[in-house]
Amino acid sequence: AAAFDTKNQVYLVQHRNNLLIFSCAKFLNYSLNFIENVHQTDNVLGKQEKKNLSSTAQNDCNKIFDCICLLCRVLMNVSHESENGALKIGQAAGFLQNCLNVLAKHSNYAPKEKFFDLAVMMYGLLVNLLEKCPANRRKFINLKSEFVDKTSVLGQQGVESSSLDILTKLFIHHDSAAKVIDEEFDNELLNEEPPDEDGGNENGQEKAANMSQDEVLTAIQTLMNKASTHMEDSMVASYCSLVVAIVVGTDNVLASQVKALMPNKDITQMLEQLERFLDFMRITNLKASTVSNIERVLNSFQTASNSSD
User: Where does the record place the Core-binding (CB) domain (predicted)?
Assistant: First the structure.
């Protein structure tokens, strides 16, 4: 009701002196403190104490992650193509900082089945908050957070990094993860025996025929899990690259900062990911304005990256 109705957006933003926005900001801050405290406590407890606490505490954390996703959805609707809505949300004390904190650290605590929704919702909200609002972009560029690498052990101390550095590293992680699965699929295809002259593959057919029902189901499930993981990493990498492109804009200095962190200092893979994302958005028949916005962001990012050479 709010996403495509300007009057509803304005009403929700202004209602009782921005009560909705400030309440969401307060809840997000409380949620991250709760998650942080749970995992800090978990790290200092003994094995048996940890076992007794972990089930209840993790269940509470899971519910909070669900609530954060819903919070993002509400604020995405309020800020959809609305500079005023985005500005008001960005002005809430600590909100942009906490958005960065979620991506930099707290998302590591989310269970695997909730991580994708959490990441996409948070990146989607940041797209709304940063794209239409220069004030939010300026504020976000100057933010720093404790970045915990996705491959690190939970509880390990992170390194304070700038928002742009964090987003770039997150892109590299998810893009690389998707490529690993691509390579695994390619290797599996290469290892398959080629068809005979009649176009068949007797050995492959015989192997499939000798598999039990459980083995067949396991093989199918393994392939589906790989495909799902690949899709999720690709989508998260796409949203991450979109936020990076919005933050960089046409600033060649910021583009150089991103390049310096990319493998071989080559930004091509990020541009290619953005182009694939744009193609995907065209296929899904989204509003023309949404597609044109992504095109504009991509073109600006390309200009900035070329100028930084």
Answer: 268-309
Residues 27 and 79 sit within 8 Å (Cβ to Cβ): no
70-122 tens-digit pLDDT: 999 999 999 998 999 999 999 999 999 999 999 999 999 999 899 999 999 99
In the chain, how long is the greatest CA-to-CA distance? 76
Q: What share of the chain is helix, strand, coil (3-state, %, to 5)?
A: 80, 5, 20
Give pTM, 2 decimals. Answer: 0.86
End-to-end CA gap in the chain: 45
d(C-alpha 272, C-alpha 270), whole Å: 5
| Contact call for residues 122 and 167 (beta carbons, < 8 A) | no
C-alpha pair distances (Å), 5 with each of 78, 82, 130, 183: 9, 10, 20, 45
- Given a contact cutoff of 8 angstroms between Cβ atoms, the answer to whether 148 and 105 are in contact is yes
Q: How far lies 270's CA from each of 32, 74, 132, 173, in Å?
A: 30, 29, 22, 12
Angle at 279 between CA 262 and CA 90, to 5 degrees: 65
Q: Where are the beta strands (DSSP E) in 148-289?
A: 159-162
DSSP code, position 109: G
Tell how strand 144-147 and strand 159-162 pair up.
antiparallel
Per-residue burial over 189-225, b = 16 or more CB atoms within 10 Å of its CB, e = otherwise: eeeeeeeeeeeeeeeeeeeeeeeeeeeeeeeeeeeee
Q: For residue 56, give the nearest of 40, 38, 30 by alpha carbon.
A: 38
What separation in angstroms does the CA of 43 have from each of 107, 112, 123? 17, 20, 29
Pairwise CA distance, residues 103 & 244, whole Å: 13
